[in-house]
Amino acid sequence: xxxxxxxxxxxxxxxxxxxxxxxxxLDARKSSxxxxxxxxxxxxxxxxxxxxxxxxxxxxxxxxxxxxALYNPKLEAGSGLGHGQKQSRPADILVNNWGFNGKPAxxxxxxxxxxxxxxxxxxxxxxxxxxxxxxxRKIQANSGICKELGWSYIPLVVESFGxxxxxxxxxxxxxxxxxxxxxxxxxxxxxxxxxxxxNLSLVRxxxxxxxxxxxxxxxxxxxxxxx
Length: 227
Hints:
The chain is of the alpha+beta class. The chain is 49% helix and 14% strand.
């Protein structure tokens, strides 16, 4: 049952310019549930350095964009602060003067797979379901310590196939508005550039993860990128 739902989810994902998709030959002529499981494993496995490297590449790309927009962002803020001196770092990127009255915002990047068993069925019918679920989980876990520190907590979640959550989309629109002034471009063009740079980072990291786990005997055409 899980395999069937997983394959349906992959097949139903809409292909758009703003999203990065990895397809494992799940067409009607040669459906391969094993390939779908390989996709999920390669993008979610925490063994090795692929997942951490993907997160850090996205974080550094976004940090560069905030810096270019003159927000003076800080990396990895919040460790050892707050009640009980917690060691977690709720802010991958901390931006001062983001909210009303100059309130700082802690941005927490995360990649979520829509092929996880607990979300694959819903993800097959609702676009962005995996991102939304991760947003809610992260808010519940980290908003408390950020409130103690006087920060707003904003999780920026992207699904492993390239769809960003609503909170990330709202953030990028605001970032694009300010960044467009610095780069002398329209807000819409700047917003497209933000998505392009972030999704390029994502697809490169995904490709590294696939290649690190690929069977050396497999044909290159067995795994291809589309989007």
